[in-house]
Amino acid sequence: MAERIPTLPPKERLILELLQSEGSLFGLQLVALSQGALKRGTVYVTLGRMEAKGYVASEQESMPAGAIGLPRRIYSPTPLGTRVLRAWDLVVRELAMEVQR
Amino acid sequence: MTRPASRALPGRVLLALSKWVFDASVVATVVTPVIADLQREVFEAGDDRKRRREARLYGYLAFWRVVMTVAFAIPTSSEGPLRSLLLGRSGGNLLIAAGIALLGAILPVFGWFAAAVIGAGVLVAILLRCWNDRHTGLRGAAEPLIWIPALALFVAIWPIFDGFVAAVFVSGVVAAIAIRRWNTRHPSAIAEIDPLAGKAGGQINLSAIPVAGDFGGLMFVVGSVAIVLLGFPDVRWFVLGSIAAGSIMAAGLFAWRSSRVDRLPPAISILSR
Hints:
The complex is a heterodimer.
Chain A: H1 10-22, E1 25-26, H2 27-33, H3 43-53, E2 56-60, E3 73-77, H4 79-100
Antiparallel strand pairs in A: 1-3, 2-3
Chain B: H1 12-21, H2 24-45, H3 49-73, H4 81-87, H5 92-134, H6 147-161, H7 163-185, H8 215-231, H9 236-259
């Protein structure tokens, strides 16, 4: 059976673009930078799905001594995610040129 | 992140509950970050009561939004105890629960007839589910089991349609046997299955039956007409008139096409048989 071609829905693309431009980010930072495109209730669902696909990786923040509360997760793009984003941009550019002709 | 220990951190109970509902990976990657954000924002609000209230409101809203969407958005196993109980591997157990709830809701309105129908449906669903779980490599062989829901359907509508049900059942069986025997004796004339439609499997609809302009198609038409005549005897003259008109039109078309067979594309092969 042939391997599935990676897909990149708009929200996942936006997250990858933000992570590419800003480096590692927390979920709420992604929500703030997206200017309303990402919601805090669903951003982790999208990130979880992207993590399952191998597009992003996450790790827990290191808590300072004496800190309380749960550690947050910080996200960064994986090499696969970077390649998929690059390939997707290329496809979109090619299609846009085809449409303009 | 330091703070007075006297103020309890929000979200601990929700996190504990989540561990009963979701599996470990979802709790770690989706639920815990939401709770962590909630706690962080409440902490950063400090003594500002308005900001603390807002942080709690948005944090809890985010949590429940996650609960509502995560089951559909992320493929997960059913490790969580409650989730395993409710959803099982394919959601079948939840369907059973929904069926029982529906039964309780409609029983006062429709009485025991509806109860029997739903009960039979649930029973069939459980049997099929059990069979599928135990024979995961033989799912294709389960297609003969399609007669179980078909039979259940006939039993369910029996009190309403009475003898009509028996006539339909007998007609269907006779038509199926006749088509099957004819196809076995004339294998080269079996209608081809549309290759674009994929593999045709047993289904509770007519779209998977490969009939066309052949004897199978004729049997299908005759069976359909017989069912209509048996079920609605008042329209028998209309049906018979339609058959006569259709036959005359078909004969005319056949004669016209036969006279021009050389100019027809080869795809219309019924005339060349």
